[in-house]
Amino acid sequence: MVFLNSIGRGKRLGSSDVDPAVQRIRDRIQPGQRYAMEFNWDGQDTGHIVVLERPRKGGGNNIIVIDPQTGTKRTIERYMGKKIDLRTLAIYRIDHLELNPGTVSDLMRARPR
Question: pTM score, two decimals?
Answer without folding.
Answer: 0.75
